[in-house]
Amino acid sequence: MDHSFLSAFILLLLVLDPLGSLPIFIGIMREVPKERRARVATREVGLAAIVLLAFMFFGDSFLSVMHLSERSLEVAGGVILLIIAIKMIFGSAGESAYGLEPGKEPFIFPLAVPLLAGPSAMATVLLLASRQPERIWDWIGALCAAMWVSGLTLLMADRIRRLLGDSVISAIEKLMGLVLTAIAVEMCLAGLKRYFIGGL
C-alpha cells in the first residue's frame, strides 16, 4: 500500500505511541532531577529521531552487514521490553524498573531506545524508505512531525504526574506493565512466527 505524508505521519505516531507510553515516560522522568527534565526529554527524543533517521537510510545495509533480520530485531526488542514490564509490575517502591539509579538520568536506554525508537518503529521507517524511496523527504518530514508530538508529550509528563498524583501514576504504571508484557510477548511471537514461516 502506498502512503501519503498524512498516512505515514499517523502510522508513525501509532507506532511510537507516546500516549500509551506516558506512564513509562513519567516513571523514567521521576528518576531525573527536576531542573534537568526538559533538557533530558529533548535530548532523548532527538537521539531517538537520529536513530530512526539513520535506520531509514542505512537500516537495510546494517542488517545485511551484521547478518541480522527484522525478525531478530523484533524478538530482541520484545525481550528487552518484557524485562522492563516485569520490573514495572513486581518492582519494589525504591527500585527503578528501567535500570536507573535514583537521581541518574537516562541516556539512550531505555527512553530513546527501545521505547521510542523500538523495533516496530525501525521496521516502519525501513519499509517506508524501501517501498517508496523517491518520497524520502515526505518520510523524513512525517518522522520529524511524529517525533515532535512524542517530545511534547514527554515534556508534559511531569505536569501530568502532578495532576494525577504519585499513587495514581504508580497504579497506572503497573497496569501499563501488564499491557507492555502483552506487547512484548506479541513482538516475540511475531518475530518467531515470521522466522519459522519464512524458513519453510
UniProtKB/TrEMBL annotation:
The chain crosses the membrane at residues 45-63, 75-94, 106-129, 136-155, 175-192. InterPro entries: Multi_antbiot-R_MarC. Keywords: Cell membrane, Membrane, Transmembrane, Transmembrane helix. One of its GO terms (cellular component) is plasma membrane. Pfam families: MarC. It is a multi-pass membrane protein. It is found in: Cell membrane. Its main location: membrane. Belongs to the UPF0056 (MarC) family. NCBIfam families: NAAT family transporter. PANTHER family: UPF0056 INNER MEMBRANE PROTEIN YHGN, UPF0056 MEMBRANE PROTEIN YHCE. This is UPF0056 membrane protein.
